[in-house]
Specification:
This protein is mostly beta strands and 450 residues long. 9% of the residues lie in helices and 47% in strands. It is built from four helices and 35 strands. Strands 3, 4, 5, 6, 7, 8 and 9 form a seven-stranded antiparallel sheet that branches. Strands 30-31-27-24-23-34-33 form a seven-stranded antiparallel sheet. A five-stranded antiparallel sheet has the order 11-19-16-13-12. The N terminus is likely disordered.
Length: 450
C-alpha cells in the first residue's frame, strides 16, 4: 500500500507544473505580504464579467477569463495591478490582450497589506494593454502574457494587414469627402489563419472576414487643413461595423490611409444583418449605412456620395486673356462631393450641398498669365454651365498667389455627368497692373461621369 501511495505521488508530481503554491510562498508588494490574494483574484474576475457582458472585450479561449498577478522582480514581488485575460480588445490585432485591474491599499497590519480591487481599466478600442513579466496565480500556476489566439468569442473584432488570402467577391461602398471605404471581399470561414495562429469561433458565434479598400482623402487633400477656420473645423469621419447586438468602431489608426485591410470578427449564429456605418461629424453631420456583403444602402443617402469622387488628375484647358497676356486656365482636378472648404472673407469654412445637389470643386492652374495676387478679383469670372445651359451657382473658392484661384466650388445637380467651364469677360484691378480687362474663349467640357 505504501508503494502505491508513493507511485501516485510521483505521477502527480510529474503531471503538474506549479512554480509555487499558496502555502509555499507569499506574494509581496514593496516587500509587504499581500493579504487574501485569492480573494482579490476572485473579486477582480467578478468585476471583469461586466466588462465581457457589455462587449468591451472579447474572450479568446475556451477557458473562463481569469485574473493574475504580474511578477515585477525577484522572489514574488508583484505589480499593484491584477491582469485579467486573455481577452481581445475589439479593433486590435488577433493577439491576446489583458485588462489591468488596479488595487488600492486600504489597511496595513503586522501581517501585511490589505488591498481593495478597483474598476477595470479597459483599454480603448484598438488599444492594447499587456503586462510585463511572468503572470502568476495563488494556486501555483504561471503563464506568459503572449499567447496564441485559438478561439474568438462574442464581440471579437481584429483589424489585420491584408495578407492576400482568398475571399469571395463582394461589392459595397461608403464614403464622404474625407474617407472612402470599399468592401471587395467577404468570407464565413470555420477557421482563419493569422500571424498569431489559427482562429476559430467559440460555441454560439461564427467567424466573418471582410476585405476593405481604404482611401483617406483627408490625408492627400490639404484643403481640409486650411487655416484660419470659421465655425466647425473639419472632423475626421468615424467608421463602424454593426453586427447583431453590437456596434464596433473601427479605429482609424488600425486602418491604412490608402490600402487594403482585413476585418476578422464574430457574429451570433442566430443570424442578423451586418453593415458598415460612416459618420460624418461636425457641421451638417451625416450618417450612412450600407449592408455587407450585398452593398444595399440602408435609409437615405445623398446620391452624390454613392458615386466616386473622381480621379486625382485630369487636364482640360480653356483660353483666357488678362490685359495683354494671353494664356490658358487648366482644370487639373475635378472633385465631386457633398462638402468642400472655401474661403469666407479671410477665414475658411465648410460649404455643404443642398438637398438633391452636389458640389463640384475645380482645381485650376494658369499658364502664361501674370504672376500677381488677383484670385479674389478673378474668381467670380470663372463660370460653370451644366447640360441644358443653366449656370451653376459658385459657392466659394480657395485663393493662392496667382491671377486665378487654386480652386473654385460650384453647386450642381447631384446626377450631373459633365459641365462646361469658361471665363466670363470683366474688368479687375490687380496689383502692379492696375485695371485690366479679362476675357475668355470657348468653354471646355469637364467630364464628371465618375
Amino acid at each position: 500500500m505504501r508503494w502505491l501511495v508513493l507511485l501516485l505521488a510521483l505521477v502527480a508530481g510529474g503531471c503538474a507544473t506549479p512554480a509555487f503554491s499558496a502555502e509555499q510562498v507569499r506574494l509581496t508588494i514593496e516587500g509587504e505580504a499581500v493579504l487574501d490574494a485569492p480573494g482579490l483574484q476572485a473579486r477582480a474576475e467578478a468585476e471583469l464579467s461586466y466588462t465581457l457582458s457589455f462587449g468591451y472585450v472579447a474572450r479568446t479561449g475556451r477557458d473562463a477569463v481569469s485574473c493574475w498577478f504580474a511578477r515585477t522582480g525577484e522572489e514574488f514581488e508583484v505589480d499593484t495591478r491584477l491582469w485579467c485575460g486573455p481577452v481581445q480588445v475589439p479593433g486590435t490585432a488577433a493577439a491576446t490582450d489583458w485588462v489591468p485591474v488596479p488595487m488600492k491599499k486600504v489597511e496595513r497590519t503586522g501581517s501585511g497589506i490589505r488591498l481593495e480591487v478597483q474598476p477595470p481599466q479597459v483599454p480603448a478600442q484598438g488599444a492594447r494593454s499587456t503586462p510585463v513579466g511572468k503572470l502568476v496565480r495563488t494556486d501555483g500556476r504561471e503563464t506568459d502574457a503572449d499567447q496564441d489566439v485559438g478561439h474568438a468569442g462574442p464581440d471579437f473584432l481584429a483589424v489585420l494587414p491584408d495578407d492576400g488570402q482568398i475571399l469571395d467577391a463582394a461589392s459595397a461602398m461608403v464614403r464622404d469627402d474625407q474617407l472612402e471605404v470599399q468592401v471587395t471581399g467577404y468570407s464565413s470561414p470555420s477557421v482563419w489563419s493569422t500571424a498569431d495562429g489559427d482562429l476559430r469561433a467559440e460555441h454560439g458565434v461564427a467567424l466573418r472576414v471582410l476585405r476593405v479598400r481604404v482611401t483617406r482623402h483627408g490625408e492627400v487633400d490639404s484643403a481640409f487643413a486650411q487655416t484660419p477656420w470659421r465655425g466647425w473645423l473639419p472632423q475626421p469621419p468615424e467608421l463602424s461595423l454593426d453586427v447583431p447586438g453590437r456596434r464596433h468602431r473601427l479605429p482609424a489608426e488600425r486602418l491604412p490611409d490608402n490600402g487594403s485591410a482585413l476585418i476578422v470578427y464574430t457574429v451570433p449564429v442566430t443570424g442578423g444583418q451586418e453593415s458598415l456605418v460612416l459618420d460624418t461629424v461636425g457641421a451638417k453631420s451625416l450618417q450612412q449605412r450600407v449592408e455587407v456583403p450585398s452593398g444595399q444602402v440602408v435609409g437615405e443617402a445623398p446620391m452624390v456620395l454613392r458615386r466616386l469622387p473622381g480621379p486625382e488628375e485630369i487636364s482640360v484647358s480653356t483660353p483666357v486673356t488678362v490685359g495683354p497676356a494671353a494664356g490658358t486656365l487648366e482644370v487639373v482636378r475635378a472633385r465631386l462631393g457633398r462638402q468642400r472648404p472655401v474661403a469666407a472673407n479671410g477665414p475658411y469654412e465648410l460649404a455643404t450641398a443642398g438637398a438633391g445637389k452636389a458640389l463640384v470643386e475645380l482645381r485650376l492652374v494658369g499658364h502664361d498669365l501674370p504672376s500677381v495676387v488677383g484670385a479674389g478679383q478673378t474668381a467670380p469670372l470663372v463660370t460653370l454651365t451644366v447640360p441644358g445651359g443653366q449656370a451653376a451657382a459658385q459657392v466659394g473658392a480657395r485663393y493662392g498667389g496667382d491671377a486665378f484661384p487654386v480652386a473654385v466650388v460650384f453647386e450642381v445637380p447631384e446626377d450631373v455627368r459633365s459641365a462646361t467651364v469658361s471665363v466670363a469677360p470683366g474688368t479687375v484691378t490687380l496689383p502692379q497692373l492696375g485695371e485690366v480687362a479679362v476675357a475668355g474663349g470657348a468653354g471646355v467640357e469637364v467630364p464628371l461621369d465618375f
